[in-house]
Amino acid sequence: MTSVFAVLQVLLGAGLVTLVLMHSGRDAGFGGIGFTPTSQGGTHIVERNLTRLTVAVAVLFTVNTVVLYRLLA
Fold first, then answer.
1. The domain containing residue 53 runs over which residues?
2. 12-20 long-range CB contacts below 8 Å, 24 or more apart?
3. Quick check: is 35 in a domain?
4. Do the domain assignments include residue 30?
5. Residue 12 lies in a domain
6. Most buried of 9, 51, 56, 59, CB within 10 angstroms?
């Protein structure tokens, strides 16, 4: 059972790093390739969904960390 959560932890960690790296500033990442309309002055739906996905993966990563701690303690 511990190995399943350990593999999940590695996958969640890699996914979280990838999602965070996609969050570069306005000149890079999704903002730099044209997904942010300058006329609207706000964040585009793609960026908002990317933020939501990043938060969801971060929460899963945190919960999995606590589960692994309980299994190994």
1. 1-23+44-73
2. 12/57, 12/60, 12/61, 12/64, 13/61, 15/57, 16/54, 16/57, 16/58, 16/61, 19/50, 19/53, 19/54, 19/57, 20/54
3. no
4. no
5. yes
6. 9
